[in-house]
Write a structure and sequence with these properties.
- By secondary structure, this protein is mostly helical.
- The protein is built from 5 helices and 2 strands; from the N terminus they run H-H-H-H-E-E-H.
- A two-stranded antiparallel ribbon has the order 1-2.
- Strand 1 and strand 2 (99-103) form a beta hairpin.
- The radius of gyration is 45 Å and the shape is elongated.
């Protein structure tokens, strides 16, 4: 190979490298343009309605001391008083026709099938009030549920 052939080959390589460099620069510019367009389009352009802006204002922390005083003056029950309260539940008969309000410790098996159905309410009272009234016991003492 002559020197002229080597120079021609070198020039050809430089031209190829120049074309490659031009393509790479063009791809880089396209990539930058694409990134810029993506960033611009991803920005939100929504406006917040005036109603939402009004709702987003911070609350003013005003504490009404009168309410706190009334709460502190409320009656508090002791553990003994709370344990004396009877809790009631509604039992439904097996045929589904009769409901009775009984203390929570009473089960359906405890009730005898010969018991009379709950009394009908008086014209001025409600059925629930008529059923909650305690049934007379031999001691006439109110039932106390132990914890």
């Amino acid at each position: 190979m002559t020197k002229q052939d080597t120079v021609k080959q070198d020039i050809k390589k430089l031209q190829q490298n120049k074309q490659f460099l031009t393509i790479m620069i063009l791809l880089f510019v396209i990539l930058l343009f694409w990134i810029t367009i993506s960033l611009i389009s991803s920005q939100t352009t929504e406006k917040i309605s005036p109603e939402l802006q009004k709702l987003s204002k911070p609350l003013t922390p005003v504490i009404d001391s009168e309410v706190l005083t009334r709460i502190s003056e409320k009656r508090q029950y002791t553990s003994d008083e709370l344990s004396a309260f009877t809790i009631y539940k509604v039992l439904v008969s097996r045929d589904g026709t009769t409901e009775r309000v009984v203390p929570i410790e009473v089960t359906a098996e405890d009730l005898e099938p010969t018991e009379t159905p709950p009394s009908t309410p008086s014209p001025g009272g409600s059925l629930l009030q008529g059923e909650i009234e305690p049934t007379p016991t031999s001691t006439d003492e109110p039932t106390v549920v132990a914890p």
